[in-house]
Amino acid sequence: MCGIAGFMLARGRRPEPEWLDRMAERLAHRGPDDRGRYCAGPVGLVQTRLSIIGLESGHQPLLSADGQLALVANGEVYNYIELNAELRALGQPPRTGSDSETILNAYAAHGLDALDRLRGMYAFALHDARAGRLILGRDRLGIKPLFYVRLPDRIAFASEIKALLALLPESPRIQPSALRQFLQNQFAGGEETLIDGIRRVPPGTALLIDADLNIRPHRYWLALDVEPRRIGFEEARAELDALMDDAMREHQRSDVPFGLFLSGGLDSAVLAAKLAEQGAGRIKSYSVGYRGTAMAHELDEAARVATHFGFDHRPLELELPRVFGRLPHTVWCADELMRDYACLPTSILAETAGAELKVVFSGEGGDEAFAGYGRYRPPLAERLLKSLLHPGSGGFRTRGQWAGRWTRRLMGPALRAVADADRAPVRRAWSETPRHWSDMQRRQYTDLVTALPDNLLVKTDRLLMGFGLEGRVPFLDHRIVEFGLSLPDALKVQGHQGKWLVRRWAEPKLPPGHLERPKRGFHVPVGDWLRGSLATEVGRRLALNPGVRDWFEVTAIPELVAARQAGRGGGRELFGLMQFAIWHRLFIERPGLRPTPDEDPLDWI
Q1: Beta strand residue intervals within 299-381, DSSP E
Q2: Is Ion transport among this UniProt entry's keywords (predicted)?
């Protein structure tokens, strides 16, 4: 796991090492163990390294034997052992112990077809000096991030937006449609980001940049290619068992110890069971709950799973001031605005685990792959009514996060002018899906290409890498995702219960009665914190924030606070404005400013 950055310049120009160093400094948290730089022709590459595989020999950038290929990579190629055996037979033996070198050698042997052979989570930049091009590649599901920007004399890229801000020739400008999407969807989706001009490399895609700085996308994987299957329970259970065996065995490849985040839910319990079954031993596990709140948590369930499998378990019972003191640092870590409250306890988990380990397993992806969310199985009447009122997505994800009243009262003219942006990513994804897919498959796909890479996986990567910790997500092995998406609806949902196949397959592996416990999710008691005098002070400071004054109608903020105080909603809106105010300070007003993990959020508004 690492941070990567660099650029390809226009003809006749050469990379400036000091600019590469400046970008690397913004990514130091992603790779505290090592740093490397490469300059050749018009290309400059830099990497900050978190050493996990090939500890002594994996220094990057990696170069081919003839010096014509150079690579910087972030992530893991889990099937590197199998690929190296094939590449040796083709005259491309590895010269290091690094799994990342497999990308370099596979490209030397197969060109762009190498991407089809990789299994893992990765983002990379590969300079092919002979062909005169730079290749920016990203894994199939978008587990690892990669951003780029076109500047007057170059195309620059980086693992995180904050590294690109160091190169911008003028103050960053906000993209209004992306900001509105954050407010209404809790994240901004698609290729555009909140910073005008900075874009995401799409998942499952490589961008080919030639000497004239033309960009040609090469899409090497699409979930749309998955065909629905007719398959019975016994066959599906056997296939799932084999897939999980392979994925978990590959995901355990590491030269350093690893641990597990245990939520108490099904997905993390499945990972615990498979790790124990495959002999991982007494690994460290971590869970989180809250002290002094009425909200239920899953500390007891997580501890029960850990005890059952003999793990060295550490439950964290948090107090609310500490949880919300994480807000400035999580905004800084994420780069991108997300109103996912779970970022706050995830940050504390990451800091705790990162003090002892470099790798943790986490259960993200199980709900998307196997239809665990209730939104995948709405009543027919609800689906038809929503589809009629809000066409374009089959009644899926039709409602904005902000109440209509506050959308009208608080959003400024520039945000009101881009109202069509709210549902654009969802409508676009829905329109891509084959008509012969079921409604449930279309909903799964829509989440797989929007909320998963642009929200959930932002948390999983950025919040953990803020503390030099790698998160491994076996449910997002692309073979498992393809399998889950292809299943008949009846193997996903029965009796209004999602992930039916996974539940039946996992039941004998888990502690007795574990599946009978209700799913609570990874909730955060925002309502217990953002109230009373705190809400009043937040409102006062928001009205003075430059970003809030530019984009919102500050005269309506006292009305919003009053509604919050009286229990008439407003919590999401007030929290979203807080996040934006902090983000604006960190990324627009003072790029390069970095909060500590524990701050008073009021000081950063």
Answers
A1: 312-319, 359-361
A2: no
